Amino acid sequence: DAGVIQSPRHEVTEMGQEVTLRCKPISGHNSLFWYRQTMMRGLELLIYFNNNVPIDDSGMPEDRFSAKMPNASFSTLKIQPSEPRDSAVYFCASSLGRDRGGQPQHFGDGTRLSIL
Amino acid sequence: QQQVKQSPQSLIVQKGGISIINCAYENTAFDYFPWYQQFPGKGPALLIAIRPDVSEKKEGRFTISFNKSAKQFSLHIMDSQPGDSATYFCAASREGGAQKLVFGQGTRLTINP
Which of residues 3-62 of A touch B (CB under 8 A)? Predict the structure, then answer.
């Protein structure tokens, strides 16, 4: 079975440019999560969706960040304009979401983003 | 109150030894405690998880010990192997909070051959 697929794997761009990260969750999973990983702050949850609806975006750093999930098989995380401090590895994860917690989250291999 | 504190930051163990990583939490509403394993260039992968109705869970060489009164849980890796060298994250979430996991800071484990 295909796991969570993220693209691109690496992105290098200049400050001020728009960056779009993409995620395809595991088929049948109805919860999707975006995380950011840095050495200083570890793994941070940015936003998560349940049945394509954003449930909690309290982790989104600021208005420059936005995320969408137009359908059950695709999500994007957009940064506009990008800044050097946004450099990190961004992970997407999906799970069989239910009201009760405890469903394993399956992570993609991440997008390593470098903002120059 | 949402934090999960993990220690140590890094750990070096000889092959065949026992690796122990500890986590502590404050929020008593947490009721699901997974451990994730991450290799370089890969995303975290679920290793083992426990709920607070049991004090221990074992899967192969991996064991979670859970102390509800102390609000602590730990991962024990028995007969540690070089292939276990990775970064390990503990996490916690609460029922009714969907699956909003709060992660510890991670432990970089190195198993020397």
Answer: 4, 31, 33, 42-43, 45, 48, 50, 55-56
pLDDT tens, position by position, A27-63: 999 899 999 999 888 999 999 999 999 988 999 988 9
In the numeric block, the tokens 């986590």 are attached to B23
Chain Cα centroid distance, residue A40: 18
Could A107 and B89 be called an inter-chain contact, meaning their C-beta atoms sit closer than 8 Å? no
Can you tell me the distance from the alpha carbon of B17 to that of B85, in angstroms, rounded to the nearest whole number? 13
For B42-101, the pLDDT digits (tens) are: 999 999 999 888 999 999 999 999 999 999 999 999 999 999 999 999 999 876 555 688
